[in-house]
User: What shape does this take?
Amino acid sequence: MGDKAHAHPGAAGGVPTAGHPSAVRNVVLVGPSGSGKTTLVEALALTAGAVNRAGRVEDGATVSDYDEIERRRHRSVQLSLVPVAWDGCKINLLDTPGYADFVGELRAGLRAADAALFVVSAAQDAATVAATTRAAWEECALVGMPRAIVVTHLDTARTSYREMNRICAEAFGGEDPDAVLPLYLPVLGPEGADGHAPLTGLTGLLSRRVLDYSSGERAERPPAPDQEEPLRAARDRLIEGIIAESEDESLMDRYLDGEDLDVATLIADLERAVARGSFHPVLTAAPAVEGARQGIGTVELLDLITCGFPTPLERTPPAVTTPSGKPRPAPVCDPGGPLVAEVVKTASDPYVGRVSLVRVFSGTLRPDDSVHLCGHGLDATGHGPRPCHEAEIRVGALTSPFGRRQHPLDRCVAGDLACVARLGEAETGDTLSPADDPVLIEPWSTPDPLLPLAVRAHGKADEDKLSQGLTRLVAEDPTLRLEQNPGTGQVVLWCLGEAHQEVALERLRSRYGVRVDAEPHRVPLRETFAGRAAGRGRHVKQSGGHGQFAICEIEVEPLPPGSGIEFVDKVVGGSVPRQFIPSVEKGVRAQAARGLAAGHPLVDVRVTLLDGKAHSVDSSDAAFQTAGALALREAASDARIQLLEPVCEVSVLVLDDYVGPVMSDLSGRRGRVVGTEQSPGGRTVVRAEVPEIEVGRYAVDLRSLSHGTGRFDRAYARHEAMPPQVADRVRAERADGPPGA
Assistant: This one.
């Protein structure tokens, strides 16, 4: 599949390089946490000769999980790149986290890749396969990305291989389960004392040969007589599935006429169907036993990647525009074309500073090139593009990562991936293009972070570094959103889940030396008058020299929601001199901003100035400001003050099985369900209006309620009066805690 002569394998622990897009395969590994993605990457690296010994996740010794947080947690939390060489190709293996909190890293991996390996564990239940993994599968299907499925943990399985194939066909096959079929059948050894049978080899359905690994070496032999019948049935179904996707319409007629089709013809058709994204083979793999040079199934998997997965030349690059938004012709994957590259990941290294992982879609990136940096970013709410940021920068050193190590590169051709150190203020999602003809790549979608984390600096030394640390953290991770809430004064970091929060705090401390304390997130409440009230503000003092004299009388009445503060002057006869009427209004508005009953801003009232008194010498602007504030406070003391809380419009997308529990849960949060509508894939959208104070942890609770299959969006709708019993609780918290609690 193209000229592979430019790919040069490195020695163990080194990295390959590629001189042409035809010699590159970019493959992202997708699957739930615990499915074995990182272990599989390690096994593939061992088989390809990139490492001399496979590391274990439990020991923190794998190439992929090199970050200290990953070593401590024994779990991937970030995208990592492990390039290996196989059959003259450079394969960029992109290992992604499986936990839903780090879906931003998964989206970056999907952006950088041209094909995907979906890793599912036979030791996990079917519900795990159907959660975030199915959502990623559907994203790949929308863009026609080729996909294959790898089953792991068969030797410790609670589920048989046949059952796993059924689960995969149901989860990933959609309306065409015959598009998801196994290429190999597992060969299991005798059961041990624990009741589990070890995986000792594979039987190729097309080749009709057994690949036996029981000796520690890969050896071929014919199948045993008791394997013939299951082999024949599975082989017939596979051939029918391949032929159904074939571009050669005569193959089906030849097959139905009883012709024994040539294996090479079937393999060629299989590879074309996989590359088109219309057929999704199921393979199985296991790490190498101690002392073995190859894991079971890894050779077959590497062969499928090099022969069945597309080169970057066969994939359509993302659309581009000018920085001002005008459409431009789509880039072409040509090393000699104009540069179009994208920062798919940004990280900070304590020694070299900011490091950007870049996917080159067109042209060739070289050290010391002068390029145009341009990026979308997100607005303050995280919902849409902000005016793009631009800069002219010089490219620093190019490297190819292999775990923690970085190997120098002299160039990165179209279709390949490389790291760039000190790439100015580059953020994830930014575009690199020629300085004289800049373009901007369309952004990829990221989920809106909906779990708030309010933070404050731990000490004085941390205050000086907090803002810069948070800004850098958000620049690295598009699924984080930073907010300075004007209603509560809190600094809020919006995250995707609790694990996301924990990792963000750890990175603040370990990468940027900033210690922060988490505090309860406060919802910005408001206050209003429930009925008419009157107040008299008297500010009279004499303490030598000029005194202070101001008296004003006001009336307060409620207004419809959204009216704000309205000030009306009805003074007659000059009892309050004209020059001091703005002073009264200023004092009223200042007191309204500070709040009355619980320290929340006062809104939706009309304040009418009726009368007052002044002194020719002692009256002043400051005195009437104070009197205006006192008058409003006195009016509040004789009236019922209502607390207003923000209400959100919430849309929950959930599987039909969970609609009832979700609606019941929303009702328990004082929500009003306003409607439901069907969505493709056996899902329902539940729309409701829910007080914001009740959905602070809904991102976590919905995940638990729907077994990881639900997601939601929220948007501010309005402020509404809070029920008296809830308002009393909030006032009690206000008396014991900080403002805005």
